[in-house]
Design brief:
The chain is mainly beta. The chain is 10% helix and 40% strand. It is built from 1 helix and 5 strands. The chain has a 5-stranded mixed sheet, covered by helices on one side. A hairpin with a 2-residue loop joins strand 3 and strand 4. The longest helix is centred in the middle third of the chain and has 7 residues. The radius of gyration is 11 Å and the shape is globular. It starts with a strand and ends in a 5-residue tail after the last strand.
């Protein structure tokens, strides 16, 4: 198991993930709407299929939209 830092709405937590687990699995575990968030991995925009590694910092940024 690998430890990663996860930020959601500015709240930081540490999660244990399996080696090579994709970002989408963490989003699903946290019940996040993948259509309404931008994913950043180590301060760079990342695709939900990107695999996680020990020490990664994963951030979910909520997209605000409307009219």
């Amino acid at each position: 198991m690998n430890e990663i830092q996860v930020l959601v709405d500015g709240k930081k937590t540490v999660l244990k993930v399996s080696a090579g687990q994709p970002i989408r699995d963490v989003a699903k575990q946290l019940s996040l709407n993948k259509q309404a968030v931008i994913v950043k991995l180590n301060n760079k925009i990342a695709h939900p299929s990107k695999e996680l590694r020990e020490g990664d910092v994963l951030e979910f940024v909520n997209v605000i939209y409307g009219g």
